[in-house]
Design brief:
MetI-like fold; mainly alpha
Length: about 325
């Protein structure tokens, strides 16, 4: 369609007008992309700035020492000062099943860790999930949340001493209370096998309750309210809502706390020291204590490191598989 003016006036629909408009549109688009790319570069820069200190610490204190230590697994090194080191191949690995003294130490310690994990995993739900549901149903209360989260700030060593003070045979507060109530006939000895494997997991679960509660609470808050309201309209009881609405949509949170509980159970060390793990209490000798004793007390440095790596690899594989499953469930 022409403008209808004198000769030489360009038609509105001419190719020249359209090419100019397209060029201006492309230039505006390029400028917009440049602005976005600059903003994204700044965002990525600050993300790496904040992540870098933790990444450096992780690489310097965890990954690099692990890589440096790998050649020592194939030697007979007895301690740090040992200069007469010989290559022994896979002898340290085979001793786990062939050496009676190693079997007598390693497999019972692995059983203690496994028992601890089972009980501690139950405490994750008894404390963490129960508190998360309570917070979710009654609403957020800042002071209440802080009080629950405070035990997470306590060190593992302090938790161990708390357990000892509560269950000392002669003067333990909880022992005296249970005796006074007539619930037990004789004081509970925290340093017998039932202490590290049954009582200690309860207190570790109490310590980590705030952290686990936050994980469960994030899962609860991610549930669409439409599904909850629909179940209420349909007349579902609270238990039915939990098992058929809440829990199926909280599986990623369940997997996260499983991974965290697995790490906590196999990293247990400080909590065991007040129970005599490094001295006389064999029932408190979990895997971490066994590795430490072999490496620094028993003159079995390379063997202790080998046991740690042999235990570390399956735990890492299991944790990685759980994390992969959690991501798949979360994004699908």
């Amino acid at each position: 369609m022409s403008a209808g003016g004198p000769a030489g006036i360009i038609s509105v629909g001419s190719p020249r007008i359209w090419s100019l408009a397209q060029r201006e549109s492309q230039e505006e688009h390029i400028i917009m992309l440049r602005n976005i790319s600059r903003r994204k570069r700044r965002e990525f820069f600050w993300r790496y700035v904040f992540v870098m200190p933790q990444l450096v610490l992780y690489l310097g204190l965890t990954l690099v020492p692990l890589i440096v230590a790998l050649p020592l697994l194939f030697t007979d090194r007895i301690d740090y000062s040992d200069v007469d080191v010989d290559y022994v191949g896979f002898a340290n690995f085979t001793r786990i099943v062939t050496d009676f003294s190693v079997r007598q130490d390693y497999w019972p310690a692995l059983g203690r860790n496994a028992t601890f994990f089972v009980i501690n995993y139950a405490m994750v739900f008894v404390f963490g999930l129960s508190l998360a549901l309570l917070m979710y149903e009654i609403g957020f209360r800042g002071g209440f949340f802080t009080v629950i989260y405070l035990p997470w700030m306590i060190s593992g060593l302090a938790v161990g001493f708390i357990v000892v003070m509560l269950f000392t045979k002669s003067s333990g507060t909880l022992n005296l209370l249970l005796l006074e109530l007539g619930w037990i006939q004789k004081p509970i000895d925290i340093k017998v096998p039932i202490g590290p494997m049954a009582i200690l997991p309860i207190f570790v679960g109490w310590r980590t309750a705030g952290y686990n509660m936050a994980v469960f609470l994030s899962g609860l808050l991610s549930i669409p309210t439409d599904t909850i309201e629909a179940s209420i309209v349909d007349g579902a009881s609270y238990w039915q809502r939990l098992t058929r609405v809440y829990f199926p949509q909280m599986i990623p949170s369940f997997i996260i706390v499983t991974i965290l509980c697995l790490i906590t159970s196999f990293n247990l060390f400080d909590e065991l020291l007040p129970l005599g793990a490094l001295a006389y209490n064999k029932s408190a000798e979990f895997l971490s204590v066994l590795f430490f004793n072999y490496a620094f007390h028993a003159g079995r440095f390379a063997l202790g490191m080998t046991l740690a790596v042999v235990t570390f690899i399956p735990v890492v594989i299991l944790g990685s598989l759980l994390q992969r499953l959690q991501r798949r469930l979360q994004y699908h």
